[in-house]
Amino acid sequence: TISRCVWVQGAARNPRHRPPVATHTGTSEGQVNLPACALARQLCPQGGNQEFKAATRSSAAPEPDPAPPCYLRPATPTPEPAAEMHLSENEGIEGVRFAVTGGQGFVGAALCLELIRRGALEVRSLDLRASSSWSQQLLDAGVRFFQGDVRKKEDVEKVFRNVDCVFHLASYGMSGKEMVQAGRTDEVNINGTCNVLDACHEHGVRRLVYVSTYNVVFGGKPIVNGSETLPYFPIEDHVDAYGRSKSIAEQLVLKSNGRQAKSNKGTRLYTCAIRPAAIYGPGEERHLPRILSLGKLGLASFRIGAPNVKTDWVYADNLVLALILASMGLLDDIPGRKGTPVAAGQAYFICDGSPVNTFDFIISPLFRSLGYPVPRVTLDTSVALAISRIFLFMSTLFYPWLDSKWIPQPLLLPAEVYKVGVTHYFSYLKAKEELGYVPVTSPQEGLAATISYWQERKRRELDGPTIFTWVAVIAGMLAVFSAAFLPPVGPLKWVLAIDLFVFRSVLVTRIVFVAAVAAHAGEAVYAWFLAKKVDPRNATGWFWQTFVLGFFSLRFLLKRARARA
């Protein structure tokens, strides 16, 4: 049997050798028993440096080469008309053992808690992190933690033993510097999915719900009210490794639908894929923190795309509901229902159902509520795309060191430009008709909860001016210091000339510098004592920030003190 699969990292960085896409055409007896890596070979036929290598311990004859891929057929088969599901709230959950990869993340934690609330026998969380913001809440609820890596098959297998249903949420490469790290993105999203599929086969898991992405069909061209009949976006045309790897992984999952368990030929694995829109909600950790950090620094001063550009978002609670309904749609033991489960081998778009302009819906209201400058100048999508490619090139130059904290996040990347600057929204009609999905939280309610969360979070964190203030104050202090105490060599001659023009003499320049340092030190001490009363958690941070910036920092602390008075 094929025991493992390895994605060659060089492929991720060679755009001229991308694996062709394969269209899912349903299950057949010739497909469902293929191990995950054999399916991977169908999706990525061997050739050049872009291949899956499978380690085998079998003397069976090699499989024939797959048929040439077709880019025009639907990504998923059109199902036979099916009646809307009418199941109890806890159908397939009570008394059942679940595993959630990425269970310490934003959506994963919410899913674990909801499964516990609905009466699951046991919920296991597999995550690379030892802890997260939700760890204590998960621990109190009774979720079992397994620290491990989906790239390591042994880590996955120890979690999946005696599990009935798996939710595969673990992924990499969605935002910021991660988007540039193509090698790791492929390892986690493709190899990790191979390991999940093989572990499901090994341990007789009956249901697998995979969290995919809109990007499996979207690649920068407008889509209005799209449906699941759209073909996969051509693999070689994806602008980032995340969309490409998730597309391959989704096809692996859907082609594994109906696969027989290794130990029990009467048990089959039923799979489906959920394609969520951009996710938001209190505690979201991929999109909004990145956007808000730029807003705080004053670097998010432009809108991208025309005002009539519309995209989808999905509130976390709505996505969790869709995932649970999808798991119910994979049940094969419902009384009175025969044949293949309604969701088996299917993909579903999930959103709030209200296409919006990203800047009008979430960015501007959030910035306004937090006191950040609201983007007002519109940047054409083509211009933003050109700028983003410059940042992509700069990040690529530092590829080996992208994990280092001293490498800043790129300001903008091409996939992010497409996300906010090109219209693309989809219908959740298929999920409604087959799974019974209807959003439980409206966009207005979700946005209000998100704004409330970030306002409270801002009150708990160190606040301060934009990056332009930092640069101006530090540059000014350095200029005065160099003119006062350093010999006028090279460019320092110009600095000295400017200082003498302003202060008239070196002595006055020195007095000004010493007075400025003393003032900053006094303000820093005052800030420390004041912060001990109004923000003790960040007292040390207020001291050092005020020592560097002086009153430009102190005024933010005074504002916080007045608000709490």
TrEMBL record:
Residues 63-80 have a biased composition (Pro residues). Residues 50-81 are annotated as: Disordered. Keywords: Membrane, NAD, Oxidoreductase, Transmembrane, Transmembrane helix. GO terms for molecular function: oxidoreductase activity, acting on the CH-OH group of donors, NAD or NADP as acceptor. GO terms for biological process: steroid biosynthetic process. The keyword Oxidoreductase applies. PANTHER family: BIFUNCTIONAL POLYMYXIN RESISTANCE PROTEIN ARNA, SHORT CHAIN DEHYDROGENASE_REDUCTASE FAMILY 42E, MEMBER 2. This is 3-beta hydroxysteroid dehydrogenase/isomerase domain-containing protein.
